[in-house]
Amino acid sequence: MQVLPPKELSAYIKHYLFLENNNSTSQQLRFFSDGNTGIVFSQKSKLISGLSNSETQNYLPGSFLYGQPDGFKNIYSDNGMLIVIVVFQPNGINQLLGISGSAFRDAIITIDAVLGSKGLELEEKLAEQATIQGRLRLLNQFFKRIEAKKPKTSQLITNASLDFILKNNGQLTISQLVTYTGYTERHIERKFTEGVGLNPKQFANIIKLHHFLGLLKNKTDTTSLTSLSYEAGFSDQSHLIREFKKHTGITPREYLYHTEKLTNNFIETFPKNTL
């Protein structure tokens, strides 16, 4: 379930996600970038980041912040899930918490390392709530208190760049972005990377991929993958498949027909012999 934040938090938080699955069998999940960062609260059982050669399970913290990922990540759940995710705007964590996006790149940080004892207190209180409404109330109260105390920062260049990239579904050149903002490429890249954790070109590629996912979701039986790849701004189907696999580890057809979508970028994958 996806829920929007109140208006006063919408500049920082894109939406909240509430994911629950009572499946008692082991699940292989895959997460890949959608251009946003977030905070995860895993309330039923801890997620597993992978298995080592000695079969030791590497448990993720019960709550953690994640930065812009490099590629896809495999995650496992062996006892059902009850997950709350605060999905921030691309530069939302930088604006709200003052964390540099570039320093936060491809990182998982325990909630207390950033929010201290108040973060752990929030984790405990969320676990005590039996309803989504109760969890929403706690989350909104928590982030409103942070927003009220945060120092004012200028995000003019980053916000203008984000607006232009999103408006064009990632189909643009850096020279067009320079013309639109009126700033130099170097200045844009420095500000953008600090706020978002990716440079403008990297972010645009992710937005283009997710624009394709939107087209794929509404694909009819008569629509070819080739035509969708052109519409999304890829030079041909081979280019699309290459970029798609780089970000997700699977092909568009595997994504469409052989995964269970928890969200667009958080999916359950199945063994190869079932594909």
In short:
InterPro entries: AraC_XylS_family_regulators, DUF6597, Homeodomain-like_sf, HTH_AraC. This protein is 43% helix and 21% strand.
Strand order of the largest sheet: 1-2-9-4-7-10
Q: Helical amount among residues, as a percent range?
A: 40-55%
The shape is globular
> What distance lies between the first and last C-alpha atoms, to the nearest angstrom?
27 Å
**Rounded mean pLDDT score:** 90
* Number of continuous helical runs: 10
β-strand amount: 15-25%
Indicate the multimeric state. single chain
Q: How many domain regions?
A: 2
How many whole angstroms does the radius of gyration measure?
19 Å
Account of the 3D structure:
This protein is an alpha+beta fold and 275 residues long. It has two domains: 2-149, Jelly Rolls, CATH 2.60.120; 156-254, Arc Repressor Mutant, subunit A, CATH 1.10.10. Helix content is 43%, strand content 21%. The protein contains ten helices and twelve strands. The protein has helices spanning 92-97, 111-128, 132-149, 156-167, 174-181, 185-196, 200-217, 225-231, 237-248, 252-257, and strands at residues 2-3, 13-21, 27-31, 38-42, 48-51, 57-59, 63-66, 73-77, 81-88, 108-110, 259-263, 266-269. The strands form three sheets. It has a six-stranded antiparallel sheet with strand order 1-2-9-4-7-10, covered by helices on one side. Strand 5 and strand 6 form a beta hairpin. Helix 4 (156-167) crosses helix 6 (185-196). The protein is globular, with a radius of gyration of 19 Å. The two termini are 27 Å apart. 32% of the residues are buried. The model has no long low-confidence stretch (mean pLDDT 90).
